[in-house]
Structure formats: C-alpha cells, structure tokens
C-alpha cells in the first residue's frame, strides 16, 4: 500500500488532534507546537476511547477518559492506567497534503 491523503495541513489546528480514517484504520493526527505533524493510533489501549478527543500537551496526547498520555513520537504510554503502546505512522507532507500509509508503522522502540 502507498501513502494516502489523510487531510490537509491547513485542516490541522496546532496542539489539537484530528481523527482520520484510512482504509478502516483510525488515527489521531496532530500538528504540535513545533510545527511537526504526527500520526498515532486513535484508540486508547486502556479502553476503547478515541484519543483524538483528548488533549495535546507538548509531544503527548492524553486520553480524556482515564488520563493516560501517549508519546506522539513513540506511541508509548507515559503514565498509567495504559501500559500498551499505540501504533505510530510515518507522515509525509506534499504541499498542503498530509500523507500517511496505514499499513506501515514505525518501529520506535
């Protein structure tokens, strides 16, 4: 599979998550305060909660329901109750297009 358009860069609001779905794979896409775009799995590993409804703080995304925060760079949980990471996807920018390949996760361990 190849990278597909997830959204426009101009559709993203700094320090807010946006839910996108590509080929049935839900992702949270974030434009952080440094201007970097990240894509991680949108489902909290502690509960079936959409992370894109959570809160961006620096380079982490916090689940609104139980407070687990996940690194936008590694997908690893930064605190309990979650202990399993979420997938991290490579993001490519092409002009205003944010491109993501949902079949390729980054190995960030």
UniProtKB/TrEMBL annotation:
PROSITE patterns: RIESKE (PS51296). Keywords: 2Fe-2S, Dioxygenase, Iron, Iron-sulfur, Metal-binding, Oxidoreductase. GO terms for molecular function: 2 iron, 2 sulfur cluster binding; dioxygenase activity; metal ion binding; monooxygenase activity; oxidoreductase activity, acting on paired donors, with incorporation or reduction of molecular oxygen. Pfam families: Rieske (PF00355). Residues 4-100 form the Rieske domain. Gene3D superfamilies: Rieske [2Fe-2S] iron-sulphur domain (2.102.10.10). InterPro entries: Rieske_2Fe-2S, Rieske_2Fe-2S_sf. This is 3-phenylpropionate/trans-cinnamate dioxygenase ferredoxin subunit. It comes from Microbacterium kyungheense.
